[in-house]
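agent> step 3/5: call structure_predict on target 'Erythronate-4-phosphate dehydrogenase' (Fluctibacter corallii).
agent> reason: downstream docking stage needs a structural representation; sequence fetched in step 2, passing through unchanged.
tool.input:
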Amino acid sequence: MKILYEDSMLYADAFFPKLGEAKAFSHQSITPEHLIDVDVLLVRSTTPVTPALLSKANCLQFVGTATAGANHVDVSFLEQQRIPFSTAAGCNAIAVAEYVISAIYATRKKFATPVRERTVGIVGAGHVGTALASKLDALGVNYVLCDPPLAAKGDKREFVSFKQAMACDIISLHTPLVTQGPHPTHHMVNEAVLESLRDDQLLINACRGEVLDNQAALSRLEQGHPLNLVLDVWENEPTILTSLIPHCLIATAHIAGHTLEGKARGTSMLYQQLCQQFSLPETVTLEALLPEANPSCLTLADVLDNHLSDNSVAQLVHQIYNVEQDHQAFTAHAMDAERFRYIRKHYAMRREFSAVSLNAGNFSESEALYKLGFSR
Ligand SMILES: NC(=O)C1=CN([C@@H]2O[C@H](COP(=O)(O)OP(=O)(O)OC[C@H]3O[C@@H](n4cnc5c(N)ncnc54)[C@H](O)[C@@H]3O)[C@@H](O)[C@H]2O)C=CC1
Ligand SMILES: O=C(O)C(=O)[C@H](O)COP(=O)(O)O
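tool.output (status=ok):
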């Protein structure tokens, strides 16, 4: 079996050579000729899987993306061609949720009300939205969920309307990019929605750039209306609207999902799916590959006051991941497509909270921190 995989798939060289002849490619140099005689194509979001790319594929039996989003793949074309396709659904949900938690606490001083007294409107209650909800629960922060497709499918959780979600103190977007059908998300946050936002709201977009009308946001800011933005994703990546960057409280290069665990899980999920698809035994496990975090253990007395104040949560969370550092790196130099790609390619992947165990001592709210994701 010939397997062609994108070179940014973490630990791919530990997994795929066990299944056949495995070869890496770079998204910038792949051509249709590379697909000749290939059985399996594995990508991340940087390789658009189009009819043109597959035009010379003569024996393709499986396409997989080691990502949650699939808007870079022409899924209906694969269906027409009867080529099985799989995503790595949920692989980086925790990573994105932890990015959002880090951002909420990094920007907290901009707002008069403490985080615990604000409500988060989570738009899209799938893997990421649910992981975020669970972490907010742990911290005692209120949230509401908005997900009309899930509500229509009979999900039993309580949902609010999009309008209600957009009235929340903090709005966090976690939908796929959908351009058709009853619940499109392309420019879901458009000029009219932006106009309805108050000065004391925070809008976080860590799903897909095109869900927020970037030009409308810039126009509003340039007209002098305050808009508190945290943007990890941008329209037209990597050729983004650079003039929007200086207006953002936090701006990053589509790295919310880039924890070591999130990327590794993406690769390992595709490995498992390939084994199933071709009835092959699974001989490699992710657990055996992940290195120990540094530090791998924190003692609470060193980092926290005696309760979960905003400052103490920020202090702890930011020891593991402070999104402000990614913001500094993103804004340190002039941005263009090359720089955007460079930052993503050389991103020093962070660890998830679960990689760190807490020595909680007598800390009264330690259970909340384990629920937030830290290990015991
Ligand atoms: N910044 C980053 O690094 C990452 C970005 N993402 C993006 O986040 C998206 C969500 O990821 P997951 O939660 O894993 O996907 P998911 O498929 O588990 O959940 C998405 C949810 O959005 C809901 N939804 C769809 N249309 C909606 C609408 N119009 N209004 C409200 N809800 C709607 C769906 O019903 C679904 O429950 C991905 O599709 C991807 O585009 C995902 C991971 C990393
Ligand atoms: O999983 C997704 O969806 C994402 O947005 C990924 O985090 C994108 O990462 P790359 O595939 O661009 O490395």
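agent> step 4/5: record observation. The first strand starts at residue 2 and ends at 6.
agent> proceeding.
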